[in-house]
Specification:
Distance between the termini: 10 Å
Keywords: Membrane, Transmembrane, Transmembrane helix
Pfam family, one: HIG_1_N
Strand content: under 5%
InterPro entries: Hypoxia_induced_domain
């Protein structure tokens, strides 16, 4: 079970980084504020998911 979470951890971190980069690109190009807000919400949600996945990996690795 822990190998499953070890597989998900980098995917979750890459997803967070991808949304962050998309948000930065949108801001640098002067994109719409609504898109920036949407990307910010997705980043926060993905950060929470990444944190849960990492904590689950740590929990199951100790068992």
């Amino acid at each position: 079970m822990s190998s499953f979470f070890y597989f998900l951890t980098p995917i979750a971190l890459i997803a967070v980084a991808g949304v962050l980069i998309l948000g930065l690109i949108n801001m640098m190009r002067g994109g719409s504020a609504n898109r920036s807000q949407t990307l910010m919400r997705w980043r926060v949600i993905l950060q929470f998911v990444a944190l849960v996945v990492m904590m689950a990996a740590l929990y199951f690795s100790s068992k």
